[in-house]
Amino acid sequence: MPMAVATQVRVDAERNRAAIISGAITLLGNSPDASMQQIAQAAGVNRATLYRHFTNREQLVTALHEEALADAEALSGQLPTEGPVVPALRSYLDDAVTIGERYRFILMYRRTDPRMFEAEAKATVPVIRAIKRGQRQDEIDPRLDPVFLAAQVTLLVAGVVGLVERGAMTLDDARAQAQLTFGKTVAPSR
């Protein structure tokens, strides 16, 4: 195959994969039980193309989870290494809720792959560092375990998404409650 043709095939394959991921995120966020055929239609590809990239639903869900973790890791990597920590973590929480809402299907999906647990832990390392820095700067209660507190931020995001998903709260109200809870949790006791 000539180099130009091979390059075009690769570009087409990457574009199709991106379209499948994007279509699946949107469709499964609204219809978690959507079929592979419906996912292909949402992505604008045929079923054969979908199955060339993902031989089954589980592979697709794993790819979606990896995509969500990559976005979470990119977000946590943007946490500043200087300056006040609590406002930065509040902003992080707000942006994490936005990511959680985008990937709500993944947050609601049963996740048991140990490789994903490792990736989730890696994505929280910058958050843990920021919490430790906030404790040194007396912004965050030093009695709180940084790993536990980082996990609580993740649970706040999942809580917001779950409440919105089942119609118990609006996104804005749930987001505000997460911010309030976070503020009450991290404040140093005097």
Automatic annotation (TrEMBL):
<dbReference type="InterPro" id="IPR001647">
    <property type="entry name" value="HTH_TetR"/>
</dbReference>
<keyword id="KW-0804">Transcription</keyword>
<dbReference type="InterPro" id="IPR036271">
    <property type="entry name" value="Tet_transcr_reg_TetR-rel_C_sf"/>
</dbReference>
<feature type="domain" description="HTH tetR-type">
    <location>
        <begin position="14"/>
        <end position="72"/>
    </location>
</feature>
<keyword id="KW-0238">DNA-binding</keyword>
<dbReference type="InterPro" id="IPR050109">
    <property type="entry name" value="HTH-type_TetR-like_transc_reg"/>
</dbReference>
<feature type="DNA-binding region" description="H-T-H motif">
    <location>
        <begin position="35"/>
        <end position="54"/>
    </location>
</feature>
<keyword id="KW-0805">Transcription regulation</keyword>
<dbReference type="InterPro" id="IPR009057">
    <property type="entry name" value="Homeodomain-like_sf"/>
</dbReference>
<protein>
    <submittedName>
        <fullName>Putative TetR family transcriptional regulator</fullName>
    </submittedName>
</protein>
<dbReference type="GO" id="GO:0000976">
    <property type="term" value="F:transcription cis-regulatory region binding"/>
</dbReference>
<dbReference type="GO" id="GO:0003700">
    <property type="term" value="F:DNA-binding transcription factor activity"/>
</dbReference>
<dbReference type="Pfam" id="PF00440">
    <property type="entry name" value="TetR_N"/>
</dbReference>
